[in-house]
Every structure is written in C-alpha cells, then in structure tokens.
Specification:
The complex is a heterodimer of chains A (294) and B (265).
Chain A: E1 2-13, E2 16-27, E3 31-35, H1 42-49, E4 57-62, E5 65-66, H2 71-75, E6 78-81, H3 93-101, H4 109-119, H5 132-144, E7 150-154, H6 162-177, E8 181-186, H7 189-195, E9 198-203, E10 206-212, H8 213-218, E11 222-228, E12 242-248, E13 251-256, H9 260-268, E14 272-278, H10 282-293
Parallel strand pairs in A: 3-8, 3-9, 6-7, 7-8
Antiparallel strand pairs in A: 1-2, 1-4, 4-5, 9-10, 11-13, 11-14, 12-13
Helix pairs in contact in A: 4-5
Chain B: H1 2-38, H2 40-49, H3 52-57, H4 68-100, H5 104-108, H6 114-147, H7 154-181, H8 188-208, H9 225-231, H10 236-259
Helix pairs in contact in B: 1-4, 1-6, 4-6, 4-7, 4-8, 6-7, 7-10
Classes of the chains: A alpha/beta (294), B mainly alpha (265).
Chain lengths: 294, 265
C-alpha cells in the first residue's frame, strides 16, 4: 500500500521555479529519502503534502486521501519536523508539548516523558532560553509525541550534535519498526544512505530518479585506481564502460561500469604495484546524476 | 478550544496593559469633572470665544459639556482612539504573528482546518476586547458616580461607552483582513498606528464640514455622542455601516486565509 502518492504535482511561484510534474510513491513501512541540494524543491513538495501551500496542478494523496481535501483528517496521523523550528517563545517546553498534544485526541503525556528522556530534553525550561540544538529536540518530540503513522522530516538534523543525531536516528528506526512510514528530506547523503530504503533524487524542481539505495549503488560505477611501475599507455584500458580515465605518472584511475572480469583480465596482464577498487558512495552517485543532466 | 485558550493566554499581557491604560485615562479625566463643574460658567465664556469649527473638531458641545454625560464624551474620543489602536494591534497580530514568529508551520500542520484556526483567533481577539471593555466600563461608571453632581442616565452612559467597543470591532476586523492579505508583516505597529491615526485625523477633518455622507469615511465618526445623548440610541445607518465593514472584512479574511500559501521561512 502506498502511504504517499504524488501525481504530476506542480507548483509555480510567479516567475521563480517551484516544482514541476513531480510523481512518486512512498510505500507503507519504508524510510524514503528525498534528496537534492538546497532550493531543488524538497520543501515545496513537503509543504504541499502538508497543505501549507496549494499546488498549481496535479495532486497528492496521503493514506489514499487527497492531501488538500482531507487535510485535517490526514494530519492526525502525521508528525512533521520542519528544518527550522520556532516556537512560541513565552512558553515552557512542557506547555508547548502539551499544547501540541492537545490537538490529538489521545493521551500523549507518557510518550512526551519517554521522548524527552531519550532526547535528553529539560521540560521545565522556557523555550526562549534553549539553544538551537535543544529547540530542535523540542521539534523532534513535538513531531513524534502522538505516535504518527507517517513522519515527515524536512532536513531534520541541522543543529543536532552527532550524539543526538545518532539517538534521533535510532528513534526513527524504532518508530519505523513499529510501523511508521518516514519521508526524510535531506541534502546530506550519508544520513540518507544510513537510514533509507529508497530515495527520490530531485533537481531543479524535477525528479531525476527514484531508486532503491542498493540498486543505486549496484548499477553504478566502481572506482579503479591502478599503480604501475611504468606509466601506462592511455589507450591500454580501451574497453566499453570505462570513463574518466586519467593517467597521472604511475597512477591510472578510471570509473568502470559493466562486466568486471573484462577489467580484471586487463589488469592481470600488466605488472602492477598497487590496486584500489572502491564502491562509490552516494555522494558520488548523486554528483553523477547532477553532472549528467547539467 | 485549545487554540482559543492559547490565544487568550497570548493576548493576556496586552489586554491587561490596555485595560489599565484605559481605566487610568478614564479616572484621570473624570476626576477633573469636579473642578470643571465648579468653574462651569467661566469656562463656557472662554470656550464660546473659540470658533465653532474648533470646538466641533475637539468634540466639545457647549450645551451639554457640563453635564456628566457631556463631559464624559470628551475623554471618550481619546479612549476610543486608544481602544482602536488596541483593537487594530490585536487584529493585525493574530495571523501575522504566526508568520513573523515562524510558528505557522507548527499550527497549520496540526489536524485542524484553517477556518477553525481563524475562528479561534478571531473569537480570542473579540473576547480580549470585551474584557477590556467590561473593565473600562466598570471603572467609568464608578468614577462617574463618584464625581457626579446630578443623576444621569445609565443607559446613555452605557451607550456612550459602548461606542468604544463598536469602533474597536471595526478596527479589529480591518486589522485581521490586512494581516491575512499581507504576505508578511514585519511589524504590527508600523501597520496599525498609521491606519488608525489616518482614520482619526480624517474623521476630525470631516467633522468640521457639515456633510453627513463624509462621516462614513472614518469609523471614528460613526457614533456621534451628541446624537446618543439626545436620542438615547445609536444611529442605525452608521451602526449598519459598521456591521457591514466587520462582516465583509472577516468574510474576506476567511476566504483569503483558507486559500493562502504559507511559505517557508
């Protein structure tokens, strides 16, 4: 079952670019990454899902219901954490969380305590007095306190120290195991790589690809670096699937995609001093998508 | 209900401050009545030397200036001005503060309709004004009774006081509409003060002309104290005009707010 179905979603802001013809689905129980650089349209897409802004054309459904028409009903089961959190300054953390909980018709007090403990958050402080990181924690607790079925995170990790980030990811994984679907938007690829099953890559308001993380990596280039005693002839690795070949003195490096045996035979036939074969990380795959289209 | 309570709490401080200010103004002016009424005759002589338009501009009517009701009309115009500023601030603030303080994302991702949010906010602003009015009116009645030289009609006194609340409602509605239509207001005061003062001064100017129709331009001129004292009632056409402004402004606010894009910060 699809928790989120986005169909040909378009949003124009006057002259400036919004998003164009975005379509993808998020299945129940997955952690779905939504990656792209700043300004690519991640927030626009998410804000449309939350009916903070209205689409120019196209539609999106959450839990099978139109996200504009049934917005209040759908939002009962959504937890949202914006990239920048700002809360009513004159309130204590506790009061804000209770206010947040008052919108959901269930008792959240136990969950608030649990979450505050995990995130190491002092409930009695005034929000005014909190650091950015601690405000973020308030945001996290606020987004999770009603045990939502769908968690939408818009660049959630900024301002969190690595330790808290780790705890936060564990928390998300736990929620996911309990059945929550997660849409995780980020421009930091390592965190997407760490958490997500599938990703959508967005660029300049359009979806470039939607893939499983594993497929993305499988289908991709391997990085070869060969060190030889004598510089190699640049034409030696004259194979299909070889890209970006550079010869820098004794070091020859290239990217390869295809049957690995062909390359290995070539390498075996020469006298090598050293050899590195690396999986590209998501960052490089990502750059690849971006460069290819540029 | 939770949004309403939250808004009331958010309005609490300003409601208290405004109530105290209005009460102090009332006490200050009404306490002068004792001294004024003693020198009544002399004062009438002095004032009658001023040209009629000047007296009208300041709302001074020599016929009933020295009855307590007539005297009360004078501070009332300043109290109305202050009340209008309070109301305009409240109205302009209720929607724009969510955008300015960047809390709109919090509120609008909760399972509530925008209509319900706006309703709670409008009601909270309305009740804050009513609370201010009740406190101010209580103080005014007490003061009037303390300084009066003759008995006066409580009904007329109430109607005179009520004009403060009525003008406030008009400005609250205008404020709400402005805040909903504007994409982002940097400061409430920068919007509310010029609008309120503009209407106030326009009202002063038009009162010196005798044309009835021009009174419609400024809400400050909708409720003429001399008329109220004479007829013990409000002028129906102006009451209607005020009601229309409130209804149209609020209806427009609902319409715009439910369709408005809430942009990221």
């Amino acid at each position: 079952m699809n928790v989120i179905e986005i169909k040909n979603l378009t949003k124009n802001y006057g002259k400036s670019r919004g998003i164009t013809d975005i379509s993808f689905n998020v299945e129940e129980g997955e952690i779905f990454g939504f990656i792209g650089p700043n300004g690519a349209g991640k927030s626009t897409t998410i804000r449309t899902l939350l009916s903070l802004i209205y689409p120019t054309s196209g539609s999106a459904a959450i839990f099978g219901k139109d996200c504009i028409q049934y917005a209040p009903e759908i939002k009962k089961e959504i937890g949202y954490l914006p990239s920048e959190v700002f809360y009513y300054d004159n309130m204590k953390v506790k009061d804000l969380l209770n206010y947040s909980a008052s919108f959901y018709k269930k008792d959240c007090s136990k969950r608030i305590k649990e979450l505050a403990e995990i995130m190491d958050l002092d409930l009695n402080k005034k929000i005014d007095d909190l650091s950015l990181g601690n405000k973020k924690k308030v945001g996290i607790v606020q987004g999770l306190l009603h045990s939502p079925k769908l968690i939408i995170l818009d660049e959630p990790t900024s301002g969190l120290d690595p330790l808290m980030q780790q705890k936060f990811f564990e928390l998300l994984e736990e929620e996911n195991k309990k059945g929550a679907t997660i849409l995780f938007s980020s421009h930091i690829l390592s965190e997407v790589q760490r958490l997500c099953n599938r990703v959508a890559i967005i660029k300049e308001g359009k979806i470039v690809t939607v893939e499983k993380i594993s497929t993305l990596k499988e289908n991709n280039y391997k990085k070869f670096k060969v060190e030889t005693k004598e510089p190699l002839d640049a034409n030696y690795f004259n194979l299909d699937g070889i890209n970006n070949l550079t010869v820098d003195g004794p070091i020859t490096s290239f990217l390869f995609r295809g049957n690995i045996n062909a390359v290995m035979q070539k390498i075996a036939a020469i006298d090598i001093a050293n050899l590195w074969i690396e999986e590209p990380d998501l960052e490089e795959i990502f750059m690849h998508y971006y460069e290819k289209e540029a | 209900m939770n949004i309403f309570m939250h808004e009331m709490r958010a309005n609490r401080k300003s409601t208290i401050i405004w109530s105290i200010s209005l009460i102090l103004l009332t006490i200050l002016f009404m306490s002068m009545y004792t001294a004024f009424s003693k020198d009544a005759e002399e004062f009438i002589n002095v004032m009658s030397n001023y040209p009629e338009p000047v007296r009208r501009a300041f709302g001074i009517n020599l016929d009933d200036f020295f009855s307590i009701l007539g005297f009360y009309s004078y501070p009332l115009s300043i109290i109305t001005l202050c009340g209008a500023i309070q109301a305009m601030n409240l109205g302009t603030g209720i929607v724009s503060k969510e955008i300015r303080e960047k809390t709109a994302d919090f509120l609008l991702t909760k399972p509530v309709t925008r209509t319900a949010i706006l309703t709670a906010k409008v009601l909270a602003a309305f009740f804050s004004l009513v609370i201010t009015f009740v406190l101010f009116f209580a103080a005014a009645v007490l003061m009037a009774n303390a300084v009066k030289t003759d008995d006066f009609s409580l009904k007329i006194f109430f109607l005179l006081s009520l004009t403060v609340l009525l003008v406030q409602l008009i400005f609250m509605a205008i404020g709400i509409m402005v805040s909903v239509i504007a994409r982002k207001l940097k400061s409430v005061l920068a919007v509310s003060l010029p609008i309120v003062f503009a209407f106030y001064f326009v009202g002063m100017f038009f009162d010196t002309t005798e044309e009835e129709a021009k009174r419609y331009i400024s809400p400050f001129k909708y409720f003429d104290t001399a008329y109220i004292m004479k007829h013990a009632g409000l002028e129906a056409p102006f009451l209607l005009a005020g009601a229309m402004i409130v209804i149209l402004a609020i209806a427009a606010s609902y319409f715009v707010y439910s369709k408005k894009d809430i942009h990221a910060v």
